Structure formats: structure tokens, C-alpha cells
Amino acid sequence: MSIIALISCTKRKQGYACPAKELYSKSNLFRHSYRYAGTITDKIYILSAKHGLVDENTIIEPYDETLLDKSSKEKEEWAVKVAEALSAESDLDNDEYVILAGKIYYEKLLPKFKKYRLPLEGVSLFERPGVLKELLGKGQSAGEKKVGAPVRRKTGPS
Question: What residue ranges do the domains of the chain occupy?
């Protein structure tokens, strides 16, 4: 079993093509999410409104697109695309997903996962960097991989 972080893209981006982890690094929230994810997960992916699932090292161009502007059908299609890409890279039934994104990015994805954590659930956008700093300050190491929200397991028929 692996623990995989899914971090949402951000409006603030570098103005040039670069690895995804650098492209979004202008955002304070992204930087804190990335640092936190690096301490508790085995792999980090970015949830891009434009590109779907993006490996942190994939070079991409700046863009201006958000899921906020998408219809419910488009969001569902986006989630299916992300889940398909994730299933090629991970085990949707056995891996655990730590989702560091707003509800609009995860609401259509959650039914596709068996195990997930939402460490920022219910935390306002403004408060998220502070919460992540607090979690980082609790001293967890990559070996512990247990700090944060409890793991949720999907129940009922798949």
C-alpha cells in the first residue's frame, strides 16, 4: 500500500513552462501543501483543472482554467479522467489518498477511492496554510505517515 497526495492546482502560477511543483509554487497554500505532503506520502500528484492528474515533475505551460467554471457533467468527466490516470499509477482499492484540495476538486473523486484522508476538510481557504504549518510542526516524519485526518474507508457496495 502506498500513500499518495493529491494537491489542487492554483490560480497563482509562474509565468513560464516548468515542472508542476514549481509552476504552482507562487501560491503560499500550494507550498505548504507540498511540504506537508512530502512528509507523509510516498508520491505527490497535482489535480489540474486543465490537465487532470499531473505528476509533480511534469513540465507544463501556465494556463488559466478552473473547475469553478465547469458544469457538473464536465466535472464528472474530469474526475473520471483523473481516476483513470490514477489507476494506471496506483491501486485505487488499496492505496490511501491524502487530498489537499477544495471540495470542488475532490467531491466527484471520492466515490472512486476506497481509502482517503481530507486533512483540510472544513478549513477555510484563508486558514489552510496555518493548519498545514501546525501539522508540520507536530514533528511527523515521512516514516510515521499517520498524522492528519483519520483514514476514511468507503463502505457499502462498490
Answer: 3-153
